[in-house]
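User: what does the whole thing look like in 3D?
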Amino acid sequence: MALKLCLTLFLLTITLTAQACPPSDQAALQAIKAALHDPSLGIFDTWTGDDCNAYYGVSCDPVTDRVAEITLRGESEDIMLQKTGGSGFMSGAISPAICNLDQLNTLAVADWKGVSGEIPACLTSLSGLQFVDLAGNNISGEVPADIGKLNKLTFLSLSNNAISGKIPASIVNLWSLKHLDLSNNRIFGELPGDIGKLKRLNRLLLNQNQLTGSIPSSITNIRSLVDLDLSMNQISGWVPFQLGTMPVLSSLSLNNNLLSGEIPATLLSSFGLNVVNLSRNYFDGFLPDVFHPKTYFLSFDISFNNLKGSIPQTIKSAMFFGQVDLSNNHLCGLIPEGLPFEKLEAASFENNDCLCGSPLHDCKG
Ligand SMILES: *[C@@H]1O[C@H](CO)[C@@H](O)[C@H](O)[C@H]1NC(C)=O
Ligand SMILES: *[C@@H]1O[C@H](CO)[C@@H](O)[C@H](O)[C@H]1NC(C)=O
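Assistant: Here's the predicted 3D structure for the full assembly of 365 residues, as structure tokens:
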């Protein structure tokens, strides 16, 4: 009896609160469903009926009942993915019908490994988009040339796909953007010279592509930048010394490029930088003797360059060095003894010209 009452109340609540989303949104979602293939989870079994808000991964605006968010993640703790141990697979593509969802602000179809095809060109007509995450798929083609139209976008990740082409020039118009991740794709060409227009960026991750040209000095105008990763490209030229004086930059990865010239002293004397990887470039000259008592590096890797001279004595005054790699250069002389260097192993110093002292062999005579 009580159960029956509950059920009646439940059904009553549903009929009172469930709202139909407009037929055009329903049709768009059905087209999206038809273009994606989920072999094992049954995600799209929930995508039926006229209450789009009840579809797994879909949220509607409570006032207009228009579809506002699509969030389908293939790596998550979500109950939907329990069957497959938290990691799902989907193939297929993102249907251009998505562009009919003109009130969409969030689109995440990420970490499904097999979702392929191109980013629908019309996506840039969804002017309300704030969050786009298509990372961890097999998406090919290029970043849409007019991506810069999405002036509300704060988050754009296309990392870990098969995207090629250049970084579109219009990208610098995304003035709201805080997070830009295009890492691990096949993007080539140069960084836009006016990338510094992206004033609100916190993270700029372009690593593992085929980028060439030099690091535009305008990048140092991005005062909010915390994390810059340009590693594993073919970037050449000098490192702008202003990178070492940026107010909140804490992680700088430039390893595995074709960079040359001296390592700017500002990078070593910086108060804020605490992860620096300059490994596997063509840096030469001496290591600037500019360490100080507030030097704090969680990780500091300058291995596989052409650095010469001795390890600066001021390094002894540093507060902390975590991981350190000075190996495979042309350094020479006594390894400074002192607290920050006490725990380091020989591998941190190997393959230099004539470094000596602990943890390497004693200096002769
Ligand atoms: C990715 O797409 C390519 C074709 O573009 C295909 O050959 C490859 O098998 C796909 N990989 C996965 C993991 O689906
Ligand atoms: C620096 O990057 C290289 C990749 O070339 C990586 O192997 C190394 O572990 C990184 N260094 C540190 C200290 O993380």
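In plain terms: Residues 262-365 form a domain with the Leucine-rich repeat, LRR (right-handed beta-alpha superhelix) fold (CATH 3.80.10.10). The radius of gyration is 26 Å.
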